[in-house]
Write a structure and sequence with these properties.
about 200 residues; about 25% strand
Length: about 200
């Protein structure tokens, strides 16, 4: 069964916006303005904040609409495309240069980790449509999951509870709970021992 996009730009951006569909914006003016204000805030107040200031960066994300549980640790060089589409449970860690591209909602479970340079890609384009519209997908990372350094999770792919996506691997399909995956595209390598709930 094909994944259904949460957002299809062709349903929101009128064709008359630009004669060449490749020149049409993917988002409304209000959305682009909101992201401009967020990007300025990120560059000045988030990115330049001292490394131990996790509570400060969490506050900035919350001010822009993120839902964060207690003790989430976003490092200064981590990036979130749209904080208002981010839902995190407690003790989520997002390392430096990890990026959450979330034009649609992304939910991250308790104790989940995104290591350095990890990339959650929440959108793509419909290359079979001449208008090439952006398609954004809701995604979920389960509790205790780990996306290792430089690993990528593709649009609409869900990471099961306790699943591990190995170094520089690319997840193009849902990852089963408590399973280790590696490679590009990622394949199942072995089971992972279940962690006790705290």
């Amino acid at each position: 069964m094909a994944k259904q996009p949460h957002y299809n730009a062709s349903q929101h951006i009128p064709a008359e916006t630009a004669a060449d569909p490749y020149n049409r914006p993917a988002f409304s003016f209000a959305n682009r303005l909101q992201r401009l204000v967020w990007n300025l805030t990120w560059a000045i107040f988030f990115r330049l904040s001292p490394r131990p200031f996790f509570a400060w960066r969490a506050l900035l994300l919350r001010l822009f609409g993120a839902t964060l549980g207690p003790n989430c640790k976003f490092y200064p060089a981590s990036k979130v495309h749209s904080p208002w589409n981010l839902i995190c449970e407690d003790l989520v860690a997002v390392a430096d240069h990890a990026e959450i591209y979330n034009p649609a909602p992304i939910r991250i479970g308790s104790h989940a980790i995104l290591s350095q340079g990890a990339y959650l890609c929440g959108a793509t384009h419909d290359f079979d449509d001449p208008a090439f519209p952006l398609l954004a997908y809701a995604m979920e990372l389960g509790p205790y999951s780990w996306v290792c350094a430089r690993a990528c999770v593709g649009p609409g792919v869900n990471v099961g509870e306790g699943a591990v996506l190995g170094l520089a691997s690319v997840a193009t399909r849902n990852l089963d709970p408590w399973t280790v995956y590696a490679g590009a595209p990622a394949v199942r390598v072995k089971d992972r021992q279940r962690q006790p709930r705290t």
